[in-house]
Amino acid sequence: MKSALLWACLFVPAWALAAENKVEGVLPLTQLIQETLDQNPDIKAAERRWEAAKARIPQVQTLPDPKINLGYRELSARETSYGFSQALPFPGKLRLRGEVAASEADIIEQDYLATALQVIAALKQSYYDLHFIHESEAILENTRRVLVQFEATAEARYGVGQSAQQDIFRAQAEISRLLARLATLAQKKQSLHADINRLLNRPPADPLGSPEAIQMTPLKHKLEGLNSLLDQSAPLLLQRAKSVERGGKAVELAKRDYYPNFELGAAGLREEPMGKNGYQVMLSVEVPLYFQTKQSQAVREAQAGREVAVEDLQSIRQELLFRIKDNVVQSERAEQLVKILGEAIIPQARLTLASAQAGYAVGKVDFLTLLNSLLTLQENEIERHGEMVEHEKALARLEAIIGEQP
User: Fold this and answer.
1) Alpha helices (H) along 61-164
2) Mean pLDDT across the stretch 45-71?
3) How many other β-carbons are positioned within 10 Å of the β-carbon of residue 314?
């Protein structure tokens, strides 16, 4: 059973919901997230650990099993005894053991939620990287087609003595370089397919569709709001906070062990051959005689464990605050660059390329200038898609940290 909190934490961008199943052959992000939640072995193992921890709570709160006693003694007369005994921990010990076990279950629950969020974040990052590979392939393929046209134009101009043969060789060399880059992208795409299939618990070679188009998802909260959410909903931080709580309960339980435990028993007696019947009641007290080397040291151990949990809480909080800040500035940088590239640099590069094409056609621009204009536009378009992907990856990492939509 999935926790309601987990479902609330798994944010899917609006563009992913809008595009789901709209285009044939497109691999919806929502579908992958659902399959990962259902099939990923790390998530399932973490959930089973949580279920096992919850099942331990009633066990430690229950009295020890009673003992049934049978006895036979023969001296001047035969004597038979039968009865039972029950161990009784000092009042409050069972309650504290249950509270410690409940705190441990809460810790494991937060570990389960954190595991699910981290796996989904890894899935999203691989998905966005796969989108970048597909977009890069499309851009490079378009450049290759243009270069083929440039090569044909250079050959025609060379045939009439209007350009040098090296223009043809440059076009051919750039086409070969593009083919090499496309081969590298194909390898990276296969690796990303295998990584996504690993998270889905599928065979690595299983085919995947193409990722859907992505759009920029704006940050819902400012940095201060994200820092506030850290203390409220971040599973990694709540896990350490629960560890501090468990440490306090463990100290209280260790101190309670200074008090004795009891064992209460009752037995029936029968003496032969007189045929007399009787009974006896017994009370045993477990005396903590060696408290200096046992109970006192157990208290020191529990106190040290609690202090470790306190320091771990502070350490992870500082680390998560840094990671929030780092991902926020990365998303802001990517957002600014996408805007500059989309609104200024790429339009300018397209105008430059169009001007260079016109100039080359009439012999006013050399082939190298034309080629540089095309490759500059290509790299700007690839950079724009790369920054869009980095923006979405930063948001995915923020989601894994704070436990909800950033």
Assistant:
1) 93-159
2) 95
3) 12
Burial call 257-272: b when 16+ CB within 10 Å, e when fewer:
beeebebebebebeee
Q: Is 1.20.1600.10 the CATH number for 27-402?
A: yes
Whether the CB-CB separation of 353 and 377 falls below 8 Å is answered with: yes
The model's pTM: 0.88
Of 200, 239, 248, 301, residue with least CA distance to 53: 239
Kind and range of the H or E run holding 51:
helix 41-60
Q: Which of 186, 158, 182 is nearest to 170 (CA)?
A: 158
CB 354 within 8 A of CB 86: no
pLDDT digits (tens, 9 = 90+) for 265-294: 999 988 887 778 888 899 999 999 999 999
23 confidence band (pLDDT: 50, 70, 90): very low
402, with CB counted inside 10 A (0-12, 13-18, 19+), is buried
Determine how many CB atoms are found less than 10 A away from the CB of residue 38.
12
Between 38 and 164, the higher pLDDT residue: 38
Distance, CA of 161 to CA of 403 (rounded, Å)? 67
User: How far, in Å, CA of 17 to CA of 14, rounded?
Assistant: 5
Give the distance, in angstroms, between the CA of residue 254 and the centroid of all CA atoms in the same chain. Answer: 35
Task: Please state the domain extents for the chain.
Answer: 27-402
Angstrom distance (rounded) from CA 216 to CA 14: 10
Contact 230, 317 (CB under 8 A): yes
pLDDT at 122: 97
Token pair of 128 as six digits: 């966005």
pLDDT of residue 13 exceeding 90, the answer is: no
